Amino acid sequence: MEIKVLGTGCAKCKATYEAIEKAIAENGIDAGLTKVEEIVEILNAGVMTTPAVVVDGTVRIRGRVPSESEIKGLLGI
User: Fold this and answer.
1) What are the pLDDT digits (tens) for 18-40?
2) Which fold has domain 2-75?
3) Per DSSP, what are the bridge partners of residue 6?
């Protein structure tokens, strides 16, 4: 599973990345997690509001910090 957090580095973007990172670590999920801060790459993904979460190439969440239960759903927990 490949997860990307798209955002320019705002507080919500950082909170999203940290929450997903924590869920991956706590549940022993085999997933790659990357942070994308390049505005061109964010726009190329079709994202206009950040933070956004991309799972295996599909934008799943945009414009808000996901809840813990949403993150678990994305990770299949």
Assistant:
1) 999 999 999 999 999 999 999 99
2) Glutaredoxin (3.40.30)
3) 36, 52
